[in-house]
Amino acid sequence: MTFASLAELDRRIAIVRDNIRQLVEQAAAVSGGNNEALVADRIAQQTEELERLTKARDELLAQKP
């Protein structure tokens, strides 16, 4: 996936960080194996997305003079 601008990447990163924050809050509030596992899976997915977006931003910044 390519991104048009640094601003777009920064917006996506902010969204994913907020998603992770909300999921952590949900994880603290839920009990039960299935619910906890689902929230943990979503946190893992969002963390991977955050890492991917951060890497893409770093690569974009490295290309700028």
Overall description:
This protein has 65 residues and is an all-alpha fold. It has one domain. It contains two helices and no strands. It is elongated.
Number of strands: 0
Poorly predicted residue ranges = none
Helical content, roughly?
over 70%
Q: Report the portion of residues in β strands.
A: under 5%
* N to C succession of SSEs: HH
The major sheet is characterized as:
none
User: How confident is the prediction overall: mean pLDDT?
Assistant: 88
In whole angstroms, the N-to-C terminal distance is 23 Å
What is the count of distinct domains? 1
The chain-level structural class is mainly alpha
Using the alpha-carbon principal axes, give the shape: elongated
Query: Helical element count?
Result: 2
Gyration radius, rounded: 15 Å
What's the arrangement of secondary structure elements?
Elements: H1 6-29, H2 33-63
Brief characterization of the structure:
The chain is mostly helical and 65 residues long.
